[in-house]
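Observation: inputs received (chain + nicotinamide-adenine-dinucleotide).
Thought: call the complex predictor directly.
Action: predict_structure
Action Input:
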Amino acid sequence: MGRLDGKITVITGGASGIGRGAAEAFVREGAMVGLLDRNSAMAEQVAGELGDLAFPLVADQTNEASVAAAFEEVRRRFGRLDALLTYAAVQLVGEDAPVHELDLDVWERTYAVNARGVFLTCKHGAKLMIEAGNGGSIVNTGSPTGLTMSGAEYTAYGSSKAAVMGMTRIMAHDLARYGIRVNGIVPGSIVTPLTKKLYDDPEISAKLTALHPIGRVGTPEDMAGIAVFLASDESKFATGAHFFVDGGISVR
Ligand SMILES: NC(=O)c1ccc[n+]([C@@H]2O[C@H](COP(=O)([O-])OP(=O)(O)OC[C@H]3O[C@@H](n4cnc5c(N)ncnc54)[C@H](O)[C@@H]3O)[C@@H](O)[C@H]2O)c1
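Observation:
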């Protein structure tokens, strides 16, 4: 028996990196997983690899009509949503910058995905959960860059993740009356396509590794356990909290 048997789940950013790692774990634990991603080729490929318990939900989370259509498809197919995990985000490495050097366009593009996109997916996901009346679990993704100096020089990205962490607490309060729990995950530095440009530079890679007292950076697999726990009934008393799975980066 799986820990998530029969749970209807949407994972944004499920075609890559940490979201993909979570999708693999969710399918192993028996969940039905919609991979909401704007990268249709990857979403279809990953869904094919994961088998009958996964399906692509191609959507651009910056666009409300696109997000609404994706959740409408879930409503039509299953009539409910039990868990929503929001991983889709961008970090514009090479463009993000200290505040006095930051282009408005870089700020806007970062916030469109990381803040507006998370708002829109939570809005339509929560509406479906409320309509179905079974409660649910929403898990958002913060970052040490929204809390610590590891966000230095990433004004747009770090502050957009801080916005998500604030939104998570407010949602936890407002959705509790519907039996919906809302928590956040704070990953350490994880090797994924998002951070590839950073790890391609040996000097930056060594610096990032040194930030983690545990002595290494993370993998998507390292992040999957907390997501399974938060989506499952094992965490039924947890809401409004942030769970740090970061190799100790935030204790520095
Ligand atoms: N990798 C890290 O070191 C790290 C550290 C802390 C927090 N995080 C957070 O973890 C989450 C996942 O990061 P990752 O490293 O796996 O990233 P990733 O780049 O590997 O995956 C992000 C996914 O989001 C999708 N996406 C981007 N914009 C979208 C949009 N407008 N609509 C729909 N889908 C869109 C991409 O197509 C991609 O599949 C992000 O929220 C990130 O901020 C990552």
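Thought: report the result.
Final Answer: The pocket of nicotinamide-adenine-dinucleotide is lined by residues 13, 15-19, 37-39, 59-62, 87-90, 113, 117, 141, 143, 187, 189-190, 192-195 (CB under 6 Å). The domain at 8-245 is CATH 3.40.50.720 (Rossmann fold).
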